[in-house]
């Protein structure tokens, strides 16, 4: 949807720019440049662009990802069984970035150099390459950080009196540090992939379900953002946090028009190639969400087992 909106806006801008241009000065020799043509152009470029680390550091110390054209490196072929990898080195200055291909196995003369497509979600595989990867460990779904949605998810999970819609001043300050409030807010969060739950979302839920400034102050934000941190704000808080995320997953699943079994039945009936691709895409998204729910449910069971002896 974002790409389509961009292309339509770009088409409108180009038409306005070329409206009064003489035929002899027309940059495209008088050819009509519409959203469809621009879409093909974008596809041609994006399929050979590498997503490298940019120079600008975003909140939390990580780099943004900038698509870059590397014509010589793109002479390598793509494969999920790669024998070479791309290494990016940067000395801190904007001009001195070295990108090189390094062999991971013994490469003989005349052997093809095979690069992995990259640690991409199925969104990029679908848009840029025209296929989806089953059980893609880097696949994610995007959600908007919405206080009302989180309140509803927490209540559905049985959490008493959630305060996502009315955070205390100190909680709001921490949300600003996570870029989930304030002037620099970025409300797009993800579920799935290598993190399972994006760190900013995980930290926000932990903080807002705690309500105890004294306890939260004992932990830094990086600890609160990590799923590997073992119940940093206590077992009860962690259980409530995981149940809230599980409820978010249930809500996300409810927005799909079909269930996985229905999708599989449609595929067996036989559909067009385009329809088959889109159905496989949504099957993988739903499967990924279910895997996240299974993971968090397992964690809740382990935490509940820890909590029971202390309660007795």
Automatic annotation (TrEMBL):
Lineage, uppermost ranks: Eukaryota, Viridiplantae, Streptophyta, Embryophyta, Tracheophyta
Keyword Glycoprotein applies: no
Gene Ontology process terms (BP): methylation
Record bears the keyword S-adenosyl-L-methionine: yes
Entry GO MF terms: methyltransferase activity
Domain Rubisco LSMT substrate-binding: 165-288
Source organism of this protein record: Brassica campestris
Designated name of the protein: Rubisco LSMT substrate-binding domain-containing protein
Domain of life, source organism: Eukaryota
